[in-house]
């Protein structure tokens, strides 16, 4: 359940004109039920300036769809597999936006057993997408964003994130899902808007979790996939 949050007219107008790097729209229809599936980034997105809050007014009022959140802190792909039926498919969504991968990479930084191997990430994503599509819902698959905001290659886990983003892109292509390339959107934005090469503070609060600008960029990018 979402508490209705008013969004200022300027933010709504910005989102209505937003574009997206992904080429294939998902084709929202009136009456669609949209579920956002992810981790703590998604969980926080229903907050005052969160990306789901920013999307809600536009999608519900302009497009006549219902939004349902399903982010739980700490989630990785194996966790999503375990809770998919209860927390997502039971809501009978017609569109599921999957934004996952940060914890699969990050949690394995010092202890690989706490992360998700590339093979397991690939297999798990395919399982999640397959089960969603088997339920009759369409899938938007997002690439993981950033763990650190320095220029590309300047953050410790950039190479790993690029590999996992590549897996997400391949799974989207192989399964006929809509790709929302959030990693590309973040890297491109930071290349232009982080001249001091800061580790955080441009799009995130702590190098991972989104600040207001990061939430706006995610909302902008996802909106383009859902509506363009």
CATH superfamily placement: SGNH hydrolase
Q: In which order are the strands of the major sheet placed?
A: 2-1-3-4-5
Quickly count the domains.
1
- Strand percentage: 5-15%
Number of DSSP helices?
9
The whole-number mean of residue pLDDT values reads 88
User: What's the overall geometry?
Assistant: globular
Please tell me about this protein's structure.
The chain is α/β, with parallel strands linked by helices and 228 residues long. The chain has a single domain, classed as SGNH hydrolase (Rossmann fold, 3-Layer(aba) Sandwich). It has nine helices and five strands, in the order αβααβαβααβαβαα. It has helices at 9-16, 40-43, 51-63, 77-87, 102-106, 118-134, 158-175, 182-193, 212-227, and strands at residues 33-37, 66-69, 95-99, 138-142, 178-180. Strands 2-1-3-4-5 form a five-stranded parallel sheet, sandwiched between helices. Strand 4, helix 7 (158-175) and strand 5 form a beta-alpha-beta unit. Helix 6 (118-134) packs parallel to helix 7 (158-175). The longest helix has 18 residues, at 158-175. 47% of the residues are buried. One of its GO terms (molecular function) is acetylxylan esterase activity. Its EC number is 3.1.1.72. Residues 1-23 form the signal peptide.
């Amino acid at each position: 359940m979402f508490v209705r949050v008013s969004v200022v007219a300027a933010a709504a107008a910005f989102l209505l004109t937003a574009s997206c790097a992904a080429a294939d729209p998902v084709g929202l229809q009136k009456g669609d039920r949209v579920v956002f599936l992810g981790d703590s980034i998604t969980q926080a997105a229903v907050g005052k300036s969160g990306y789901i809050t920013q999307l809600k007014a536009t999608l519900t009022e302009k497009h006549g769809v219902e939004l349902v959140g399903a982010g739980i802190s700490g989630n990785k792909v194996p966790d999503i597999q375990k809770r998919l039926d209860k927390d997502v498919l039971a809501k009978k969504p017609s569109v599921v936006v999957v934004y996952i991968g940060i914890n699969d990479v990050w949690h394995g930084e010092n202890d690989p057993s706490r992360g998700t191997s590339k093979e397991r990430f690939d297999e798990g994503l395919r399982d999640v997408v397959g089960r969603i599509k088997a339920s009759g819902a369409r899938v938007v698959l997002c690439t993981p964003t950033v763990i650190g905001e320095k220029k590309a290659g300047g953050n410790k886990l950039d190479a790993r994130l690029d590999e996992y983003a590549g897996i997400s892109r391949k799974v989207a292509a192989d399964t006929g899902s809509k790709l929302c390339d959030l990693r590309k959107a973040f890297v491109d934005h930071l290349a232009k808007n982080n001249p001091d090469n800061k580790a955080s503070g441009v799009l995130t609060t702590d190098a991972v979790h989104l600040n207001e600008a990061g939430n706006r960029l995610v909302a902008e990018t996802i909106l383009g996939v859902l509506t363009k």
